[in-house]
Amino acid sequence: MHTINQKSTTKAWAGANAEPAKEFPSTQLPIISGKIPDGLRGTLYRNGPARLERGGDANGGLRQRMGHWFDGDGAILAINFTDAVATGVYRYVQTSGYQEETAAGKLLYGNYGMTAPGLIWNQWQKPLKNTANTSVLALPDKLLALWEAGKPHALDLETLETLGEDDLGGLTKGLNYSAHCKRDKQTGEIFNFGISPGQNATLNIYKSDSTGRIIQQAAYQLDGVPLVHDFVLAGQYIVFFIPPVRLSVLALLIGINNYSDSLKWQPQLGTQILVIDRETLSVVSRGETEPWFQWHFSNGYVDASGSVIVDVARYEDFQTNQYLKEVATGKTHTPAKSTLTQVHLHPQTGKVTSIQQLLNEHCEFPTVPQQHVGQASRYTYMSKFRSGTDISQEILNAIARFDHKTETLTEADFGENHYPSEPIHAQDTQNPEQGWLLTVVYDGNSHRSEVWVFDSDRLDAEPVCKLGLPTVIPHSFHGTWNPAK
Fold first, then answer.
1. What is the spatial distance between Cα 368 and Cα 316, in angstroms, rounded to a whole number?
2. Superfamily of domain 12-483, CATH level 4
3. How far is 43 from 242, CA to CA, in rounded Å?
4. Residue 143 CB partners (closer than 8 Å, separation 6+)
């Protein structure tokens, strides 16, 4: 056991999460610099935990902090780019739990990193709150706010008014819909999964049409109850890499531990692999490889030889969960590094043939252009740390593009105390070869939030446009680009 030097200095990033976010209605955004590109037309949506506390306000009561960053109530930011202007809207997802706690002025529910406040039987009466805080899926007639331990919430695409939970025509009781669905731009099909807990968990796999309606389902039993956050669409396959993290069910059931603290790193189990046929949703193969943990995959595809190629932000262990827990407190001290890693897999046997680290730098939120999901993509976009950053004390403060062809990394440097969100690629509506990269930036120097737009081919140049936002947007998780029709 080694000791960690915990510095007491509060870092600038903590200001964004220091108090609950303030909503704002549809507002024209001022252009701080540059101009909005003529071919950037559509809407950027972002989702993330925007309230990490209750009580202690003007209404009195004890100030209660949530136990983990993942526990915060979700709020959606929409930035709409038209021929005239850019407008922004920011609203909390009005989940039933959010409304109950707002009315009560205090926390009532347990969640990923916290048990329900009060007496132990509260754990069974109010076990979990759907925080709707992780990602978004833009459908033709609605926006889904996603959270992996429950059903999605449907919102109005323009006003962000919450319409209520949505079962997508197939989510019966006990079925969950994860935060990381994959959409094939060529077919319009949407794939996703959900984990149903039990002594051994069930992996439920869903295929939806372009409207989001579930048209096909399959279910497979897993060993124990693992933490599965993301998966890969790779050509004709859906691939799951199941990390060696297992839930201690008894401690959770009797209310001794919350979900997060009941998760145990068990490297001896290795990483289990499940390859699924995307047409039939049947198992093609099962395999096993060395242990690692991942939150996120960049992409997957099938190469000319028939191998499945998967790019993943790989951690050597599960320390990342402790680091993310500390983010909610405003001070972090646990180092947790993930690297962009490429895995080669034989789909018919489930056998991994090679594992190669592409970058020896921290990488998170890796993405590819939407039109390349499930296919080979020359570029991977990611969040990372600026050179010289103490990764145990800071949060992600740069974005970059990795060129798989030249094996080069191009980084956007935001300067001291600026914190960009996950970069989202937007294809130009006038020139399909042109792309833009959008990120919401918290400026810790001035305690403001902005939207920065980069030319995706010139990340190391100045942003082509910067837009001001009316209020501070807390650090968020995931977003999407919905192009104008």
1. 23
2. YVTN repeat-like/Quinoprotein amine dehydrogenase (2.130.10.10)
3. 33
4. 45, 76, 78, 136, 137, 154, 155, 156, 157, 160
Q: What's the pLDDT tens digit per position in 432-457? A: 999 999 999 999 999 999 999 999 99
* pLDDT, tens digit, 9 for 90 and up, residues 54-112: 987 655 568 899 999 999 999 999 999 998 799 999 999 999 999 999 999 999 998 99
The three-state (H, E, C) secondary structure of the chain, written as one string: CCCCCCCCCCCHHHHHHCCCCCCEEEEECCEEEECCCCCCCEEEEEEEEEECEECCECCECCCEECCCHHHCEEEEEEEEECCCCEEEEEEECCCHHHHHHHHHCCCCCCECCECCCCCCCHHHHCCCCCCCCCEEEECCCCEEEECCCCCCEEECCCCCCEEEECCCCCCCCCCCCCCCCEECCCCCCEEEEEEECCCCCEEEEEEECCCCCEEEEEEEECCCCECCCCCEEECCEEEEEECCEEECHHHHHCCCCCCHHHEEECHHHCEEEEEEECCCCCEEEEEEECCCEEEEEEEEEECCCCCEEEEEEEECCCHHHHHHHHHCCCCCCCCCCEEEEEEEEECCCCEEEEEEEEEEEECEEEECCHHHCCCCCCEEEEEECCCCCCCCCCCCCEEEEEECCCCEEEEEECCCCEEECCCEEEECCCCCCCEEEEEEEEECCCCEEEEEEEECCCCCCCCCEEEECCCCCCCCCEEEEEECC
Furthest-apart CA atoms within the chain: distance in Å: 65
Phi/psi of residue 327, nearest 5 degrees? -55, -40
Short-list 203, 289, 307, 301, CA closest to 243:
289
Q: 300 φ, ψ to 5°?
A: -150, 155
Domain-wise residue ranges, the chain: 12-483
pTM for the complete prediction? 0.95
Cβ atoms of 253 and 233 within 8 Å: the answer is no
Question: What sign does the CA torsion over 126, 212, 187, 285 have?
Answer: positive
- 303 residue type, one letter: D
Dihedrals phi, psi of 31, to nearest 5 degrees: -85, 120
Q: Which of 44, 107, 121, 105 is nearest to 72 (CA)?
A: 107
Q: Which residues contact 140 (CB under 8 A, 6 or more apart)?
A: 210, 211
